Inverse folding.
């Protein structure tokens, strides 16, 4: 079955354009909204798999979309995946989205809309409960100065692997990107979990916790 999507953006033209692209990619667009209250109502009525939300909406065009995403998560839990779109890299907002460590949340720059395959992949990963962080956000967060932390013990290769996990990549995608064997990637991930002192738990959950440790630095 195709994933059901609700779109929220105050630009009707942009919404319609995204909706057309998503339908062509095999998704079902079940609702659209131009502001946060309409979005929350539409999600409540349509029960989508994923809500695709512009971070800046009326009336102030600051963080209405982000606050609506948080309200949707509070009301619906992981039943609705959330992918927030932003024109600019806003690391504080990105961290707010993934702060609960529960997954099913993502933050993507609008530039990614030009790559339908990348956008579709991000939507599917969020729908499956994964976390998606735009590579530009990851790059800015990694470049920050910070105090000594367990993450400093990671090797350069382990950092590369964790950076790709932060983008929401699967083990196989990491293998393909770094030209590594599956067992090698699995070993790097095991080392990451160990160095970050993440106790045994479902791997999906530990991946999210590792990403949080990485981003918070």
């Amino acid at each position: 079955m195709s994933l059901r999507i609700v779109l929220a953006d105050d630009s009707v033209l942009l919404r319609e354009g995204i909706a057309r692209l998503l339908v062509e990619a095999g998704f079902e667009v079940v609702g659209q909204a131009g502001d946060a209250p309409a979005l929350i109502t539409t999600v409540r009525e349509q029960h989508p798999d994923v809500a695709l939300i512009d971070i800046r909406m009326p009336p102030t065009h600051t963080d209405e979309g982000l606050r609506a995403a948080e309200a949707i998560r509070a009301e619906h839990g992981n039943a609705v995946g959330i992918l927030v779109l932003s024109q600019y890299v806003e690391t504080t907002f990105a961290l707010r989205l993934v702060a609960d460590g529960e997954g099913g949340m993502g933050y993507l720059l609008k530039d990614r809309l030009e790559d339908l395959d990348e956008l579709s992949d991000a939507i599917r990963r969020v729908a499956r409960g994964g976390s998606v962080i735009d590579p530009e956000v990851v790059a800015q967060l990694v470049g920050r100065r910070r105090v000594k932390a367990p993450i400093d013990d990671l090797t350069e290769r382990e950092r590369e692997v964790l950076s790709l996990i932060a983008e929401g990549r699967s083990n196989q995608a990491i293998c393909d990107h770094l030209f590594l064997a599956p067992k090698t990637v699995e070993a790097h991930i095991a080392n990451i979990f160990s160095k970050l002192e993440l106790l045994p738990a479902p791997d999906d959950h530990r991946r999210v916790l590792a990403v949080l440790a990485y981003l918070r630095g």
Observations:
- The chain has a mean pLDDT of 85.
- Residues 182-195 form the longest helix (14 residues).
- The radius of gyration is 17 Å.
- The chain is about 50% helix and 15% strand.
